[in-house]
Amino acid sequence: MPNANAYGFMTLAEFYNQRISNINGGVQRVWEAIQMSVAEYNRVSGATLSEFAVPTELAMEQIELPGDGTLQPLDEHGNPLPVVPSGNYQVAYPIQGGGTAWGDNRVSRELMTVEEADRFTADSLQRDGNWLVRHALAAIFTNTAWTFNDKSGGAFGVKGLGNITIQPLANNDAVKYARKGISAPAVDNHYLAQADAIANASNPFPTIKAELHEHPSNMNQPIVAYVASNLVTSIQGLTEFVDKDDSDIRPGANSDSLIGMISAGPGDEVIGKTKSGVWIVEWGALPSDYLIAKVMGRPPLKMREYPAPNLKGLFPERADVDGNHIVRRFIRYAGFGCFDRVAALVYQIGNGSYVIPSGFSAPLAA
Fold first, then answer.
1. Percentage of the chain surpassing pLDDT 90?
2. Cα dihedral sign for 214, 218, 221, 225?
3. How far apart are CA 31 and CA 29, in angstroms?
4. What is the 8-class DSSP label of residue 16?
5. Cβ(227)–Cβ(281) under 8 Å?
6. Strand, helix or coil at 273?
7. What is the CATH code of the structural domain delimited by 7-63+88-349?
8. What's the pTM?
9. What is the pLDDT at residue 3?
């Protein structure tokens, strides 16, 4: 007997090859299986995305930056003047809608099996997963600010905030970020590129580590790089790369081994770690020649949702359209924007300057 693809249909596994119309309470039981599947999917997808995004209901907020400077000179009669902390930037988050559906009519409804309903539901969940990943990646890959017309972020009775600015990662704008040591805050750019392919003489990972760890909020934190599949072979060819499968080899003059392990998060597979201290995770969802590196445990994005509980997450709807056609809809309202603008960076391989990958320029049309 085939295994159910959607979580809730495990309760109907014994009826998998039967028509829904032949099962006692079949239509209602299938609807309950759909609802259970969506609830479990929301739990798992939220946990998977948590490395990149945290939920919010805010439309806009101000991020306070660490202060800088040094002590004021004093003699034995002096008192320091009060200092107002300086340094902040404003971020905002969009909210967009998406949906999919499957349905039946009076004939197909009588003939439909539990297996078919399971497959239709699993396909719908997969489409939402694709939507979430694409929109989250677009928020990271887009290196320019863009305007969103907000219609719901104001106080009760207010139609919204109007035009708000969605910010990217640090992109050499006017914001000055704190740096380690006693260096003065400075503008920064977290959209990097190199024309050469990845090789020992053109290894991006020491630069990646230095760029992220120069900020006090990131110092001494582990770094993970999510890399496109076409970059894996060249990364594995680096002298400093340590494959995860070498766990039986102890450090020596000619070889090193990787003993620890991390979760792949939204990626496909942890493939190893560089000796410069960057974990490497293959993620097939990334466009060729791009990688995203981030400090572990510090999501760079926030995912905005409406404050109404019934509008959070993916939610199902069932509608009798005309007495013949019945549809099961799957609806999502959410949006992504950067809030910790130095917690991650993007690196493009094979181009001298950064270019937003095709199909990932925010805001996405769908």
1. 76
2. negative
3. 5
4. T
5. yes
6. strand
7. 3.90.1690
8. 0.90
9. 56
